[in-house]
Each structure stands twice: as C-alpha cells, then as structure tokens.
Amino acid sequence: MALKELILSKDTPRNQIIIFDSGLSECETYDAITSKGNYFISRLNSNYRVKEDKEEGKKKSVEKIEKKEIETLTITKEIKGKLYTSDGNETQTSYRIIHGTQKDKPMG
Predict the structure, then answer these.
(1) Residue of 17, 37, 29, 34 whose CA lies nearest to 93
(2) Cβ neighbour number for residue 39 with a 10 Å cutoff
(3) DSSP 51-105
(4) Residue 43, SS3?
(5) How far apart are CA 15 and CA 13, in angstroms?
(6) Tell me: the pLDDT tens digits for 61-73?
(7) Is the dihedral of CA 3, 6, 42, 106 positive or negative?
(8) What does pTM read for this prediction?
(9) In terms of residue numbers, what domain contains 36?
C-alpha cells in the first residue's frame, strides 16, 4: 500500500496528527489529509516551495521572529502559506511551515 493510500484510508480516525517523511509528491494529498480532519508533520520534498500568505506576512514584519533552539533542532524561520510545486500545483489550504537545521549530535 502506498503512503498516500495508507494515510487517507478509512482506518485513520479524525483529529489525528500524522507524522511521515518526505514521501508525498502531490499538493492534493496534503489538502485531502486536512479536509479529512487530520493534521500532519512532515519533511517536504525538495520540489516544494511556499507562497507566504499576504496577511500573515504583514503580521510577521511587525513581530520579530527569533531563532528558537531545542536539543536537536534550530528553528530558523516560521511562516504560514500555501505549498506549491514548479509545475504549478498549489494547495488550497495554508499551512504552518517551519524551517530548521539539525544540530550536530554530541558524541558519547
């Protein structure tokens, strides 16, 4: 069973947070997850870009976005916008997009 079919199967209850790696390639799949009443956390494929929401951009220009750090990750940017691909596909829903870099793992 492909990742898309597994995530969208009728066995996935509503209001679940679905975590997966960068295995989805269609904008429609992200919208289908959302319209089904679920949430997701994922690393995006490199072919995706983000079109920042105009109203959200105005808010962020007033607020100072500070770099946030946790044990293994540094969050460098946080925006809200739609996902799109180079071939013109775009999500209908705006999502919270977090850019980050992984910290070096301590030796031990």
Answers:
(1) 34
(2) 13
(3) EE-HHHHHHHHHSPPPPEE-SSEEEEEEEEEEEEETTS-B-SS-EEEEEEEEPPP
(4) coil
(5) 7
(6) 445 556 677 778 8
(7) negative
(8) 0.73
(9) 13-102
Token match 């799109």: residue?
84
Query: Total domain count for the chain?
Result: 1
Residue 72 contacts residue 105 (beta carbons within 8 Å): yes
Is residue 54, in this structure, part of any structural domain at all? yes
Cα angle, residue 100 at apex, residues 60 and 76 outer, rounded to 5°: 40
38 within domain boundaries: yes
Please state, in angstroms and as integers, the Cα–Cα distance from residue 108 to each residue in 1, 20, 25, 105, following that order: 39, 28, 37, 9
In tens, the pLDDT along 30-50 reads 999 999 899 998 888 888 888
